Amino acid sequence: MSNAVRAPAARFSPRALGLAAAVVTVIIWTSFIVIARATGDPARGGGLSPLDISMARVLGASLLLLPWGWWLVRKDRRAGLGQSCLFGLSPLPWRITVRIGMFGGFLYALVVYSGFVFAPAAHASVLMPGSMPLWTTLLAALLLKERILAGRALGLTLILSGGLLVGGASLLQAFDGGQVWQGDLLFMSAALCWSTYSVLARKYALDPVRATIAVTAFAFFFYLPLYSLLLLTDVLANNLLSVPVPEFLFHALFQGWGSVVISGIGFTLMIQHYGPVRSTMITALVPGLSALAAVLWLGEPLHWNLLAGLMLVTLGIVFGVRQSQAELPNHGAKPGYL
Q1: pLDDT at 114
Q2: What are the helix (H) ranges across 120-149?
Q3: CB neighbours (10 Å) of residue 287?
Q4: Cβ neighbour number for residue 243 with a 10 Å cutoff
């Protein structure tokens, strides 16, 4: 039999991987807002509290990331590199693990899920993406000594104006006994937590995968005992074990594997292919898509102030990152802008 030339194994091109990563990331980020509201809204009869959903998120992500962290730590030790903590499951030093784990894992999850108890998904669509660039810019100026350049300042002004249109209206309703403003403040606080994590990751020049593993390891060792203590002392109702198994598995898979693992890796791949500026512009689709999804699937109204705020925030994100890149031709934008 003549020698046959074996065809090389089919592989995805970098362009296909980048496009797939962008689509998956945008879908997961959009779905996160809608699903979190559908679960957290008391009017929809969700059986899980923000503490329960956070626990499902931690457990789901830990199933994948803790073994991965164990393997990375042993690999580093064989090479004589790196530092680790938390019984060799976090591939980062203790001090860094605690800092990024507190803001990027524990506090962020609790605050953001609590926000959906009070405010609709459309508010989250505007206020979370809108607050992140604002907090990140201010924290970067404070901690990293970065200058706030004119183009970014104008973009932030547009974003802030959009946030005021949404949050200001709900704050006025507080005098009539409304609770939406509480959710709005929680969304902005969640954005502050994530922005703090983002700036710390830039400050320490962390690898995204190792940082995500460290955040999950901290949440597992810190939040699991706290949650168990609240259950044992009857401070917290045992909802997580009383809900149907498919519902628990769904949240563990989507919140843990989807929101933490897949979207984290997908965003990293997107940056590698498109660059940080174009990636940020792609994720600017999330506010509009999630607000539209909330109207279609949750039946939420899209009032004029929400629509106007959404447009201003989206324009501000796109304009801000484009101008930042134009004003820093030799440096480029950093991935942590959003």
Answers
A1: 93
A2: 121-143
A3: 27
A4: 17
